[in-house]
Amino acid sequence: MSVLVVNSGSSSVKFQLLDPVSGVSIASGLVEQIGEPEGHVTLDYLDEETKKTQEIADHGVGLAIAFDMLAAAGVELGSDVMAVGHRVVHGGEVFYRPTLIDDGVLKQISDLSNLAPLHNPPNVLGIEVARQQLPDVPHVAVFDTAFFHSLPAAASTYAIDRDVAKAHDIRRYGFHGTSHEYVSQQVAEFLGREDLNQIVLHLGNGASASAIRAGSPIDTSMGLTPLEGLVMGTRSGDIDPGVVMHLRRSANMEVDAIDELLNRRSGLKGLAGVNDFRQLQRHIDDGDADAALAFDVYIHRLRKYIGAYMLDLGRLDAITFTAGVGENAAAVRASALAGLGGFGIEIDGERNAARSRKARVISTDASAVTVLVVPTNEELAIARAAAQLVRSEQ
Length: 394
Ligand code: ADP
Hints:
Blueprint: E1 2-8, E2 13-18, E3 25-32, E4 39-45, E5 48-54, H1 59-72, H2 77-80, E6 81-88, E7 99-100, H3 103-111, H4 120-133, E8 139-143, H5 153-156, H6 162-167, H7 177-191, E9 197-203, E10 207-213, E11 216-220, H8 242-250, H9 255-264, H10 267-272, H11 277-285, H12 289-313, E12 318-322, H13 323-328, H14 330-336, H15 349-353, E13 360-361, E14 370-373, H16 378-393
Parallel strand pairs: 1-6, 6-8, 9-12, 12-14
Antiparallel strand pairs: 1-2, 2-3, 3-4, 4-5, 7-8, 9-10, 10-11, 13-14
Bound molecules: adenosine-5'-diphosphate.
Adenosine-5'-diphosphate (ADP) is lined by residues 204-206, 233, 276-278, 323-325, 328-329.
């Protein structure tokens, strides 16, 4: 039996059908540009790509087209699927493990939208339409915040008035948890050790770092929202909160405009005009000084977190790079860990430059800390979590 994984964003829905045991992906697809005249649904089934372009009025229409395309390819979701796993960004204080969705749970996820206004509403929409289309299949929510629910209080607490924090659920929640958990488990398996002290660097469009001791996270770079921490494709990461007040007072910017600035027009995009790392690298090669500075700021922030987490952990066994940039950009990996031989961290140039889609070690044999590249697979982790929960309920 397979699991359908749904990741619903504001104008797109990613879906994948996979076997949770073997990890084999049976079909995957993407509904894009929902609400625009020229929407697309793309389906990859057995390496064959089919694409439909038409107006996609809303998420429901998009998913219905996708399910019709799957049926035309011979996949009957109603009978073949044991569960639908939904990626949900914010689980707040309430959800810290995969949860079977009923009307009450859906309402609670929806209520958490005030903490994640950009993410939870489209997640809720995806759940609603998938439940309408597949009413007889169990639906499971898997939360991006769940893995970090047990962060030590010193790492999860902001130093602000505790009554204000309590009244408004303000704490550091952390995100990309499914990826940090999956990748750190892969590293433990790969190295054959459970008691590892590790740093995981998830560097995609969004980016986050975590420090993990024997499977439990002790710190992570994202906070109340996915805006804190590393420099990202379009997000600033850490800034002095005074910048927000300054923009409000001196530039007369409304809160929504500041939100948009920091989430969508900052990071690499704000500094160099592009958020895609491949483009950034091309601009650097062409001698673009803004692109070179953006790269330096990105690396500077990354190294700051690596250094902090090394001290947090005390002893460090492994550093792992994952996600689009982490898995592919050798220059980022080399720069992030350059000159750290004194700390027992030594990258092997040839291993680092070799291209592969598999988990691999890129440190020298003499390096005390093992440096790895491990492809993340959030869909598989969600599928496994959903399948496990559904089996345990039967
Ligand atoms: P997300 O899931 O957060 O949207 P991904 O993990 O897919 O993001 O990562 C997207 C980022 O990975 C983009 O900035 C993209 O440029 C970068 N990336 C993908 N392939 C490469 C590559 N070969 N070299 C450098 N960067 C790459």
